[in-house]
Amino acid sequence: MTSSKISEKDKALGRNYDRAAWFYEKSAKIYSTNQIRKTKQYQMQHIEPGDTVLYLGAGAGEDAVMAARHGAKVTCIDISQGMLEQVQKKLDEENLSAELVCVNAYDHDRIGHYDVVAANYFLNVFRRDDMAKMMAHTATFVRDGGKYLIADVSTAQGNPLAKAFNIFYLKLAMGSFWLMGLVPWHENYDYPAFFSDAGLNWEHTEYFRFAKKGPILFQSIVARRC
Ligand SMILES: C[S@@+](CC[C@H](N)C(=O)[O-])C[C@H]1O[C@@H](n2cnc3c(N)ncnc32)[C@H](O)[C@@H]1O
């Protein structure tokens, strides 16, 4: 069931994402040699059946559906109605349910409500200052001791060649998103560097490589609300 609390101002941005809704996950799968999905699958070991889980900027929701299948009580928020329609379609196919809310994450206000909040490929759509504000705001949705999970692109790691590949490959994706008006041009973020300001403690980072064996491109981070 989808409800909408979207302001007129946010509708325009939502429409840009609506246009990408049908191909977003398909292209992410090809582009990432399926590693984007793996970063989200990794999170399932950090979610217990019965947990309340919030997906921020849920997109087409492959991860939200994994969590619902796993027995979690899932809420998805997104600025794009088109993205949420994709989530609903997937839920219907498996006779699963979740709460879907079309809203700007800045306007969501369930402080301390969730066992787990997942920000997957979401914080990466903001400029640095906005990203830090968004992280700090959305971290307040996690109950004390609950988890804040981030699956996203990784900063460059390894030898100079691996680092150069990481930068080239990830900028290629950012460039196409930028051309579609979906993201501003920005650096890839070292998320744990922002955790103390957001009231989070870093616990673990799992890295994911291009085609499993190549340079590190993606990461799945586990943090806890302190
Ligand atoms: C790059 S996509 C990631 C989608 C999904 N989390 C995934 O991992 O595939 C970013 C998503 O965030 C949504 N979004 C962007 N700004 C938002 C905001 N301020 N509040 C809520 N959702 C937002 C977009 O509509 C889009 O679905």
From TrEMBL:
It comes from the Bacteria. InterPro entries: CFA/CMAS (IPR050723), Methyltransf_25 (IPR041698), SAM-dependent_MTases_sf (IPR029063). Residues 53-146 form the Methyltransferase domain. CDD domains: AdoMet_MTases (cd02440). This is Tellurite resistance protein TehB.
